Structure formats: structure tokens, C-alpha cells
Amino acid sequence: MSSLYVAFAVGIPILWLLTQRVESARVRQVLYLVASYAFYLSVGWRFFGILLASSLFNYAWGSVVRRKPTASVLWVGILANVLLLSTFKYLPALAGLFEQSPIARSIAHLALPIGISFWTFQGLSYLFDQYRGENLDPTLVEFLLYMGFAPTVLSGPICRLPELLPQFRSAERGSWQNVAWGAQSIWIGVLMITVARYLGSGWNGQGVNWGFESLSGRLSSADTWVLLIAYGLQLFFDFAGYSRVVIGLAMLFGIRLPENFRRPFLSPTPAVFWTRWHITLSFWIRDYLFLPIATMRREVWWRNTMLVASMVIFGLWHKASLLFLLWGTYQGLLLLAHRLIQQWQRRTKRSVKGPVGTALSWLVTFAAITLGWILFRARDWNQAGSLLASALNPFSGRPSALPSDFYALVAIVAVGYVLLEWLTERLRGEGDMLSWLPIELRYLGYATIFYFTVFHSAEPQSFIYFQF
Question: How high does pLDDT run on average in the chain?
Fold first, then answer.
């Protein structure tokens, strides 16, 4: 069992018991901060100094922005954060182009601090909120906790201080009801992560990871589409499952974190998809980047350009590569195309309405989003080009290279996902996926999930979004 599992299994109950005996919110903040830093040190001790330096800078500069909210002061804070993020995330990629230089080679091998993309954006949102005049006056401990809070420090969700600060200051402690809700969210997340692992490895080692890394040459069109659908599901179950786990962990202590996913694969349009997928990042880009810049001018072309540019930044946030730049551009063009089609429909009053129109819109959206995973997952340009050619030409490629049991696995997961989401929506609307079941069945399911995950899983693997 990894140190991460040990930290959770041992540290969480101890911390919960300690916080139950403490009445002072400030003392609990110190306990949370110590536990959060101990957790980060257990998984990324080499980069703890970078997290601390970023936290201290943003806290100090936020006070400056609050006293003197000018654009020039704000820009200093923005550039400092972008420089820090770029040094570890983008500079190594550029240095890799100059391998003949010893200095460039050493820069190219800089490791990416775990979570830097997430807590850098949290620091930036604090500066933006101070500039806008938000009534924020955190203590140093509160801000350090906001930046390094254990459930969110590795891979989000990306939080905002106005959401967390009142909860850090609340006199309420985690209740047994919170424990029940938190445990339910954790075990649902564990189940989703387990599904992602099976999609990645397949029944016999021939899953998504094998398909992208081992198969070469032109795949059949069916193979390509199944592989892409499987990867989209793997990415969703991995990251949405992780998000549910950390949301549940915070809930154990009575702290509510924002949702990060909400039925994305049932989205009828690209615009709806990006309000349901990685929600905290999508809305961060919207609120702090797209809206402030898009509203600077009233021309339609300007807003459309900023829409595409925002999604380009969305792509580059994930990784500094031409494939991710193109992926962001592609997603931006999808959103723009959807906007233009809506405008055309309003002008001409032509649209396919009713269930048929909704189904058609969903199918086109799902296919377009799925096709985009090529740029998100392909290992290089050659593979991306080969997959794109196969996907768009149903008569090309060689006979099926993917095993039939992988087809069955993807079908089971896809159908199960749709049925479970539909059933949950019908029975409870927005809510936890299993809360409508009798409590005995729920806890039997949680125990079964826990047993198979901990005692029958392979070596612990990194979550996909840890690389971002």
C-alpha cells in the first residue's frame, strides 16, 4: 500500500477526532494546515518550497492589490504567477528544442510540481477578486490553508477564497451526517476510479493504454472510435472519481467543495458540455479570462475571437505542446460553430425540434467531443494523423486489432453510465448517484468497492490529471 493510502487511512481518522475536540475555528485551521502540509510533503516533498513561496507571494501581493487596485499592480501579480507556472510547465518544453545546450538539457528535465496548475490558478483568482473589490481579508493561516488544502492541492477542484473562507471560519464541526455523506461520495469516487483502471488496462491487459501505446499503423474505423470513446470514459471516470473522493474527504469535516463534473456525456451541445466537464476550470476561464476581455469591445468578431482564444489557453493549461494547442483551438471552434448555428436558427427560425432534434444534437456533440480526444491523448503527430484518418474514413484500415472483450467492456461501461445517470435523475434529480438505494445496499456496495479496490487492484497508479 502506497504512502498516499497510508496517509488517508491513518491521518484522516486522527484529524477528524482531533477537530471534534477543538471548539476554536482558528485552532482547527492550524490543524488543517499542518495536516495539509504533511500530506503534500508525503507525496511531493521536493516541491513544498514552491507551494509555500507561491502562497506567501500571493498573500502579500493580494494585500497590495487591495490597498492599490490598479491594473499595473494587478499585472505584476499576474506575471509573477505566470512566470512561476511557465518555468516548470512550459520552459522545459521549449528547452527541449535546444538539446545541444547543456543548460537547455538541464531545464528540459525540470520536474513539474504536483498541483502547480491548480494552486497557481487559485492564487490568481485571489488577486483578481481583490482587484474587483471583494470583501476578502484572510489571515496568513487562512490563506495558506486555502492554497494548500489537502483535498484540493494535488488536482483540484479549483476553488475560490469566497467559497472556502466562511467555511474555514465556521464554528461548526464535521457531524456524523457529514461523515455519512462524505463516505458515500468517497466510495462512489472509488468505484469510478476502479472503472477507469479497468478501461485503462482492459480485462487482459489490452485496454486503452495498450491501444494507444502498442498498436501501430492504421486502425479500422470501428477500432478507432471505440478506442476514443473508451479513452473519454477513462478520463471522465478517473478525474470525476478523483474529484468525488476529495469532495467526500472535505465533507467529512463539514467543508463543501464545488462539483467538477455533472453528466457531461449527456450534453446536447458543446456549450453545455463545457459547463459540465471540469466545471471549476471552465468557469475560472469564463469568469477571469473570457468575460473581462470579451466585454472590452462590442464587435461580434472580437467576442468570437476571444471565445476561441480562451479555449486555446484552456488547452495550453493542460500541457505545453502543439497537440494541446490544437485541441484547445478545436474546442474553441466547436463552441464558435455552435454559436453561429444558434444565430442562424434564430434568424431563419429553422431547427429540428422535439426528441429527434435533441437526439441529433447530442449525437453530433458526442461525436465531435470524442473526435477531439485524438489530440488530447495521441503520443505524437503521426499517431494523431493516423487516428484521424481512420476515424473519418469508415472503409480504411486493417481488420479489428482490438479484442472483442474490450468492445464488450466499453459497451458495458457506456450503457451502465447512461442508465445510472438516467435513473438517478429520474429518482432524485441532482444528487448523489446511489443515495436513492436502501442504506443496507449502499453500505454493502461501499464495503465491496473498498475490498476490491484496496486488496485486488494492481500497483497504485498516478491519476491522469496529476500530469497536468
Answer: 85
Q: How many residues does the chain have?
A: 468
Contacts of 318 (CB under 8 A, 6+ apart): 117, 324, 327, 376, 468
Q: Is residue 158 exposed (0-12), middle (13-18) or buried (19+ Cβ within 10 Å)?
A: buried
pLDDT digits (tens, 9 = 90+) for 423-447: 766 655 444 445 556 666 666 666 6
pLDDT reported for residue 456: 46
Give residue-wise pLDDT tens across range 285-325. Answer: 999 999 999 888 889 899 999 999 999 999 999 988 899 99
pLDDT in tens, 146-186: 999 999 999 889 999 999 999 999 877 777 788 888 888 88
Tell me the per-residue pLDDT of 231-274, one tens digit each, with 9 for 90 and over: 999 999 999 999 998 999 999 999 999 999 999 999 999 999 99
